[in-house]
Amino acid sequence: MKLEEIVEGGLREGAAVVLGEKSTSVNFRLANNTVTTNGREESTSVGIVALEQGRVGVQAGDVIDSAQVAELARQARSRAQQSPEAPDAMPLLTPDEAANGDSSDAGTAPEALPADLEPILESVQELLERSRADGLRCFGFAHADATQEQLGISTGVRLEGRRQNASLALTLKTQDLRRSVWAGATARRLGEIDPGALYQKLSRRLGWTEKSVALPAGHYQVLLEPSATSDLIVRLIWEMHARGADEGRTVFAGKSGPRVGESMYAPEISLESDPRDPQMAVPTFVRCLGSSEYGSVFDSGLTVPAAVWVAKGVQQDLICPRRWAQDHEHPVRPDVDNLAMRGTDTSLDQMIASTERALLVTSLWYIRDVDPATLLLTGLTRDGVFLIEHGEVVGAVNNFRFNESPVGVLQRTVEIGRSELALSREVGDEVFVKAPPIRVESFFMSSVSDAI
Amino acid sequence: MLDPEFAGLPLDQLSSSALETMAAIPGLEYGDLRVHRDRVQGIHVREHELISLSESQPQGFGVRLVVEGSWGFAASSDLTAAGVTRAVATATEMARVLRPLLQERVELAPEPIHQATWIAKVELNPFEVAAERKVEFMLDVTGRCLAAGAKFAEFYCLQAQENRYFVSTEGSRIIQQRVRLHPVLEAGLVDERGSGLIETMRSTARPVGRGWEYVEAHGFPAEAEEMVGWLEEKLASPSVTPGAYDLVIDPSNLWLTIHESVAHGTELDRALGYEANFAGTTFATPDQVGSLRYGSPRMHITGDRLEPNGLATVGFDDEGVAAQQWDIIKDGILVGYQLNRQMAHKFHLPRSNGCAYSDSWSHLPLQRMPNVSLQPDPDRDTTLAELLGGVEEGIYILGDKSWSIDQQRYNFQFTGQRFYRIHKGQLAGQLRDVAYQSRTPDFWGRLEAVGGRSAWQLQGAFNCGKGEPGQVAPVSHGCAPALFRRISVLNARQEGKE
C-alpha cells in the first residue's frame, strides 16, 4: 500500500489523525572475527487517533490492505467511545497552524528507501582480516534504518517526514580477552561511516592497554569522550519536561516552580536541538500516538522548531505540550529527536596533551536512575578507561561504577572540546546527538568493577 | 481459545509458499518461517484522569535460513504468499552477501519434529474485557491513593497477547498463544523534610502470565491505601548509615538481583562472546562448568519454560524446541547454561534447552532468558519471620527500583521500594536512601538461608533487553525471601552529594 492510500483511507473511515509509515532496516553482527547474525526488515504500518467529543482512541498496527486500515479506524473510534474525556483535549491543528513542508527541506535529505549494507561490507571484511592477522578478536554491529512517514489530520493537514539513521560499533579485544576497547560512529547513512578509521582508533587505544594501572574508587578529574557525554546529556533532556517540574517530580522542580532561568550548569554549557540540522535531520513536525508529559495526540502536525534548552549554563526551556502550556502558562515546546551540545575548536588530543592527571573515559554503560530529585544516576565505565599523566596516556585503568548526576557533571565541567556526531553507547542511535569531549572535575567513581 | 484474527490469517498458504521456495534454494541446510500476530494494549491513568489508552497490533513474519553455513534472515509485514516468496529470496541474498565475512559455519543441535497447538490458560483474557471496566477499576485505585493523602497517583497496565505460527524445513508445525500483563501502581507524597520534591512508592504487584482476573484479585484497592501509609512512614524515617549489613531480601526485590547477576550471567551466547559488543559477556565461562563456585551451597538455580503463569513459559521456543526444566547452579556450583540450538551444538550438547525467543516478527530469534529461579529450602518450610529472627542488626528490603550491573555481571548496585531496619530479629521501622552494592560471587557466597516453598513467589519483568537490534523479552524469576550476611550498603542520597 502507498502511504497516501493509508492516510486517506484512515481519514475516510472517520479518523482524526492518521500516521502512515514505511520502514526498511538492515543489519549484521560480528563476534570473534566472524559475522554471526543478520537481517533485513520491511514494514508498512499505521497509527490512528479517533476523537469522539474530546475522547481519544488510539489503534496501531501493520497493514497490507485498505480493509485493515478501515478496521483499525473502526477500533479506534470504538475505543474513543469507551474512554473518558482526555485531559489534554485541544482543537486539532489546521493547515494554517501546522508545520509546513517536510524534513527534506533540510536540503540533503536522501531517498528514504532502501537502507543498505553494501557501502561498508568490503571494508568490514578487511578489518576482520586485519584483526585476525593482528591476533585480536573483533566484535560489532552495523545497521541502517530508513523511514518515511505521512501524517494526515481531518482538518486537511498533510505532512511528510523522512528519517535515516545508521551506526557501526566495534569492540576489539586481545585473544585472551584481558584487554578490551570500544568505538562507535553514527550517521544518516552507512556510507558516511569509515570502518577503517574506526578500527585505527581502536588499534591505537588497544596499544594504550599494554600497560595497566589499578586505581581505587574515589573522585577523579575525568575526560569524557563524546559517546560518554552524549549518554549523560540524553538522560538530562529526558527529564526536561514542564509537567514533571511543575509537579515537583524532577531535578527541574524548584522551591517556587520550574528552574527555568536558573544557572544550573557551568557557564560554558549550551544544549540545543534542530530537526533541520543536515547531519541529523529528523521530521520537523510532531507525530504523537500516545499522550504523556512529552507530547499530546492533539498536537500532531505542530512544528518542531530549532530550540535552545540551555544557554551559557542557564536553563532556558522545558518540553511542554499545548494543553499543559495553556493551563500552566508555559510556552509550547515540542519534544525533540536530536540534541547538540555546543563545543569549541579544541580536539580531544589537545585536551589530553594539556592534562596533568585525569582519567579518560570512552564509554558508559548500564546507566539507571537512583534519585530523581537530583537526577543521580548510577552506571559503569566500559571498554576503555585510561590514565593520563603529564599530557600522555600512560596506561589502562580498571573499570568503575559511578554515581553521578548529569546536572552535577555539567556544573563541574571545566573544559569543552570539539562537538561531533556521537554514538551514545547506552541510548544507541535512536536519538541523534552531537556532543563534545568534556573535562569534569571530581567525578565520583563509587567502586571498582572487575569487568573487562 | 485461539485468537480468531490470528486463526484467520492464511497460515497454510504462507507456509506452503515458504517451504516450496526454500526447497529450490541451492545449498539450503535449514529454513523456518515464523508468523506473529500480537496485541499490546497500554492503559495509563493519573489521579482522576485517563492519560492514554492505546493498542497496537503488530503482525508479520520472519524467514530464517542457513545457506552453506551462513544465516540469512528477512522479515516483512506483507502477509501474503508473494510477500513470503520475496522474503525468502531476500534472506537467501543476505546469507550470500555476508558469506565472505563468515569464519564459522552455523550448525544446529537436533530437535524432534513437533506438530502441536499450545494455548496458555487464562481466566479472563484482558482483550475480552471492556476498556471501560479496566479504566474504571484503575481510576478507583488511584482515587483511593489520593483519598488516603497521596499528592500523586499513577496506574499503568500493559497487556499483551502473543500468537505465533512456526513451520520448519525439518517438518515441525507449531501454533501458540499466550497472554500476560503488568500492572504498575505508584503513589507520591511531598518530601517536606528533605528536598521538597515528591517521593514515590510503587506497588510490589508483579507482571504475570495471567489474565485481567489477576489485576482485580491482587488487592490494589487496599494496597493503594497501605502504600500511602508506608510512604508517610518512609518520609519520616532515618536515612541509612552506610556500612556492612545482614540483608533479608524479599522476592519482590531479589528477583531482579537474580535476573541481573545470575540469569544474564549464565547465558551461553554471552559466555562465547556473541554479546560482547553490546549486552556484554560473563565471568561464568564454559571452562568453569562443574567447578565455578557461584554462591553458597544453599544456592540452587533452575531454568525452565514450564512454570505455570511464568512470563517465559511456552510450549515450544521460537525455533521449535519443546519447553524443559534444568539445573543451572546446584549446591552453589555452575552446572549448566541457557541454550538455543546453535549454542547447544557449539557446546557439544545433544539438544537445546529451548531458550530461543524473538520479540517481534521483524527480529531474528536470539538465545533469550527462560524463567530462572532460586529454588526454596528443600529441607524445611523456612518462614520470613525465621529469617528475620536470625538477624541481630540488618535491613529487610522489599520492591525493586534502581538496578545496574557491569558487562561481565560482577559489580552491581540495587535499590528498592521499602527498607526496614531489623533489630534483634524484629522489624524496627523503615529506613530510607538504601542501596546495596556487591560483586556477584561475593554476594551469593554470603547467602546463608533461603525461605521455604510457602514463601516462594514468581516475580519478573516485561522488558529484559538484549541483542542488536535491541529486543525485549518477558521473563519470570521465582524465589523465596533469603538471608545474606554482611553486604555493603550505601546511602544513595549521600552518594549524590559526595
Protein described:
The complex is a heterodimer of chains A (452) and B (498). In chain A, the strands form four sheets. In chain A, strands 7, 8, 15, 16, 17, 18, 19, 20, 21 and 24 form a ten-stranded mixed β-sheet that branches. In chain A, 21% of the residues lie in helices and 39% in strands. Chain A has 452 residues and is an alpha+beta fold. In chain B, the strands form five sheets. In chain B, strands 1, 2, 3, 4, 5, 6, 7 and 8 form an eight-stranded mixed β-sheet that branches. Chain B has a five-stranded mixed beta barrel with strand order 9-16-17-19-23. In chain B, strands 12-11-10-15 form a four-stranded antiparallel β-sheet. The relative contact order of chain B is 0.14. Chains A and B meet through strand 1, strand 2, strand 3, helix 2 and helix 3 of A and strand 2, strand 3, strand 4, helix 3 and helix 4 of B.
| Largest sheet descriptor of chain B | 8 strands, mixed
Q: So how many helices of chain A?
A: 9
Rg of chain B (CA only) = 24 Å
Distance between the termini of chain A: 49 Å
| Oligomeric state of this protein | heterodimer
Number of strands of chain B: 23
Structural class assignment of chain B: alpha+beta
- What radius of gyration of chain A results from the CA coordinates? 24 Å
Average residue pLDDT of chain A: 95
What would the principal axes of the Cα set say about the shape of chain A? globular
User: What helical percentage do the residues of chain B reach?
Assistant: 10-25%
Please, what is the average pLDDT of chain B? 96
Poorly predicted runs of chain B are: none
Poorly predicted runs of chain A: 103-112
Strand content of chain B: 35-45%
Number of helices of chain B: 12
